[in-house]
Amino acid sequence: MDSNHIFTKDHDHSFENAEHIFFELASEQRLLIISKLNLQKNKLSQLAKDLNITMQEVHRNVNRLMDSGLIEKDSDGKFSLTTFGATIIKQISTFDFLSRNKEYFSDHILGNIPMKFVQRIGALNNSDYIQGIVAVFERWKQIYNGSSQYIYGMLPQVPLDLIETVISKIKDNGIKFRYILSEKAIVPKGRASLLNDSGFNELLRKGLVERRMVNKLEIAVVLNESQATVMFPSLKGKIADMNSMFYSSNDQLFHEWCLDYFRYCWYNSKSFDESKLVEV
After folding, report:
1. Is residue 220 part of a domain?
2. Residue 23 phi/psi, 5° resolution?
3. From its phi and psi, is residue 177 left (phi > 0), alpha (psi between -120 and 50) or beta?
4. For position 27, which CATH number holds?
5. pTM of the full structure
6. What is d(CA 150, CA 72) in angstroms, rounded to the nearest whole number?
7. What is the residue range of 59's domain?
8. Less packed terminus of the chain by CB within 10 Å, N or C?
9. What is the DSSP letter of 39?
10. Burial annotation 141-160 (CB, 10 A radius, 16+ → b, else e)
11. What is the mean pLDDT of residues 55-61?
């Protein structure tokens, strides 16, 4: 039997359910209503006032949302999200993030990240898009200089001035520095001399610096205890594109995504091998 036929037969009912929910959410007013109810319970009159729509409009849309099982009404006449509705609204950030950045993802891919991180991609929704290699480097410096506890980084190449910045930060503030490089990562000429002259090996010995290596680095992240950035690979190069990135400061979900991904890569990496780097 054809595998496509099996898939269609087994999953028709699931697509019908999804189609119904997408249809009900395909309305700005209904999205605004459930967004308001996600914050607090509300009566019809308050919803109409807050959203600047007529009572007839809010009544019609509320009835549709109730029929879909997304919201419910209590004995006081106040509407709130059901468990189903509260769970659905948490998925909207994924569609919002991808749709707002659809031009970016027309020539970038998610790379080799595990499905558990793809499913949480909406956590990146509250971020700024930083474009241009100079702007990217300046934001990295800001993260390095703004750290008070740690700096974690995964980069396809290491600019010399970033090395100087981070070494100074470690020495002056005693922060923890962990980084992951890929095999054949590009490092600047003079890096070895700089590390040697700056006492880098002593920082390694003290455990203030730890480093690991992966075969290929498609996704890049740089973060401290409050700021984080993530870079996805371009379709052409299929390694992390350092010409643009997503950045956020003090957004818990964004930071958790970047931190969890770094930790996942750290614990699935291998010992660092200096001989596999490429000096340019």
Report:
1. yes
2. -65, -45
3. beta
4. 1.10.10.10
5. 0.83
6. 46
7. 3-94
8. N
9. H
10. eebbeebeeebbbbbbbbbe
11. 93
